[in-house]
Amino acid sequence: MKRLSISPQALAKRRFLRRAAAGGSALLLAGCDHLGGNESYTQLLSAGESLSRGVRSLVGSTATTLAQEFTKADLSPSFRGNGNTNPDSAEYKSLAAKGFADWKLVVDGLVKTPAALSLAELRAMPARTQITRHDCVEGWSAIGQWTGVQLARVLALVQPLPEARYVVLHCADSFGEGEEQAPYYESIDLQDAHHPQTLLAYALNDQVLPVTNGAPLRLRVERQLGYKHAKYLMRLELVSDFAHLGDGKGGYWEDQGYQWYAGI
Amino acid sequence: MPSPSDPNAASHRGYLYLRHRWPTRLTHWINVLSLTVLLMSGLMIFNAHPALDWGKSSYNGKPSFFEIGSRLASDGRLIGVTRLLGHEFETTGVLGVAAGVDGRPSQLAFPWWLTIPSRYSLAGGRLWHFFFAWLLVFNGLLYLAHALISRHLQRDLLPTRQDWAGIGRSIVDHLRFRHPKGEAARHYNVLQKLAYLIVIFVLLPLIVLAGWAMSPWLNSLLPGWVDLFGGRQAARAVHFIIAWLLVAFVGIHVFEVIVSGLWNHLRSMITGRFRITGSDAATTTGGRK
Question: In this structure, is residue A56 part of a structural domain?
Fold first, then answer.
């Protein structure tokens, strides 16, 4: 057996290493937080996102790739409601009290013929039913069966103008209170808006869409994360640019630092 | 004064040789940086939903097989709990409930000092994670290209027939913390080769794939490929488990570096030069039978 004999130099080295390790991790954390608060560094970090988007366009025509669809056997026993689960605006509450009989989806902005569609009118349009997985940015997922009208059909009705690039979804819910109150909104590009699985959904698992999950109407944009799937839809606005809305990032969570393209 | 012709002096001092070429050294340290940031930002992302499920979705009628949370104990204290396969462990102080930056108890799955950013920010964690994920991928491709072209992979990493024959002895040597001395130290030993090969060709590619499997857009490129992992949530669990396997690898790696000559190894990964000492180095540590 080898006997342990430790020289003073070796002890000094050990002390140095221990301190270096402790100091190193504290420095790393402080350094990361400092960098994270720095605008130009966060911009550098978001190069990762730009790269992902670049690859997305390199992979080429992804306009038609479909999200995986599942069977009834895969359905989650109950579909988790997240974020706002019951908007507290007076307007929404009175609409909900009448079973959304007076609710109308306004579709306007850069369109030839603006429209206001009732729930009955939307239900009368050709429907699509799909069983898909909802991936929340937090990391959980749930599988549900959605029925609704393809957004492409509604767009065909109002005829977007050539300069229209995005569909902005204005919602009845909001976060924060008083001066801090920020309405929920989202935006998607026209490629995703015309995707066959992009629905304005009014039913979940063969039931009328519950308030928890976005009654009377919510977006399904299946190749993106949950926060893009705006609930409690009130108005669709076609725009060429969303810089004038909220903090200009294209959505409530985008304004809080989340990615606009939420496919990753 | 010992002259270079004095064989004892020469074997005592040994000689330096170029062990690691610059691409290996550079990509090694970029790995250290990116894996550290990926782990810590990954723990931040995990904190947003501190549970793992096996299957196509989180809500599949079965309870999570792993979960970190908090609850009130019978005496009214807030305790951190970690549940694994139905068994509950109290992990107050580290997991579930730990001292926050201000010293007060904070209900996070992984504590602030293990996460980037150190304050809860899922958006921030994702920003860090995806940037360093790209760095890790580019770095890995650079390493692979160099390792193949320079034949580092074929020459130094692929186990030889003698390696396979000596695997039993290598295991015993490792358990006794005995390491090759002299000329034998110029080559990686067989367990070391296998560990590196598994990390390079199994764990790292799998963790990247499992990461991709969580992306709804990448899912749509080839619908159903995620089921190879057992579903999207299973892929998330695989991603998490491999992350900790990599932590285990790093732990063993650093341990082996320390016990087989920390400064020599550190020098060789910085300047490239590794010192081979002669037979007397082997006899003074009793490494030979």
Answer: no
| A72 shares a domain with A38 | no
Residues B268 and A164: their CA atoms lie apart, in Å, by: 59
CB contacts of B179 in chain A (<8 Å) are none
Please tell me whether residues A30 and A103 are part of one structural domain: no
- Rounded to whole angstroms, the Cα distance separating A255 from B123 reads 11
Chain segment B56-93, per-residue pLDDT in tens: 999 999 999 999 999 999 999 999 999 999 999 999 99
Cα(A179)–Cα(A169) distance, integer angstroms: 22
Mind telling me how many Å the CA of B225 is from chain A's nearest CA? 9
**Chain A within 8 Å of B284 (Cβ-Cβ)?**
no
> Residue type for B141, please?
L
The number of folded domains in chain A is 2
How confident is residue A58, by pLDDT bands cut at 50, 70 and 90?
Answer: confident
- Report the CATH number at residue A214: 3.90.420.10
CB interface of B with A, residues 234-263, below 8 Å: 236, 262-263
Judged by CB atoms closer than 8 Å, whether chains meet at A62 and B217 is answered as yes
Interchain CB distance below 8 Å, B121 and A257: yes
Query: Side chain identity at B158, as an amino acid letter?
Result: L
Ordered domains of chain B (ranges, CATH): 7-50+117-284 (1.20.950.20), 51-109 (no CATH)
Whether residues B127 and A48 touch (CB distance < 8 A) is answered with: yes
Answer whether 0.80 is exceeded by the pTM.
yes
Q: Count contacts between A and B (CB, < 8 Å).
A: 145
User: A139 and B61 in contact by Cβ < 8 A?
Assistant: no
User: Residues B58, B51: contact at Cβ < 8 Å?
Assistant: yes
| pLDDT tens-place string over residues A200-225 | 999 999 999 999 999 999 999 999 99
Q: End-to-end distance of chain B based on CA atoms, in angstroms?
A: 32
Report yes or no on A48 lying in a domain: no
Query: What is d(CA A232, CA A213) in angstroms, rounded to the nearest whole number?
Result: 8
pLDDT tens-digit series, residues A151-201:
999 999 999 999 999 999 999 999 998 888 999 999 999 999 999 999 999
Nearest CA in chain A to B44: A138
Name the residue range of residue A141's domain. Answer: 68-255
Interface contact flag, A143 B124, Cβ < 8 Å: no
Name the residue in chain A with its Cα closest to that of B40.
A29
**Structure tokens of B215?**
């992306």
> For residue B189, what are its two tokens?
């030993």
Say whether both A37 and A102 belong to one domain: no
User: Is A28 within 8 Å of chain B by CB?
Assistant: yes
Q: pLDDT tens digit string along A71-91?
A: 999 999 999 999 999 999 999
Distance from A65 to chain B by nearest Cα, in Å? 6
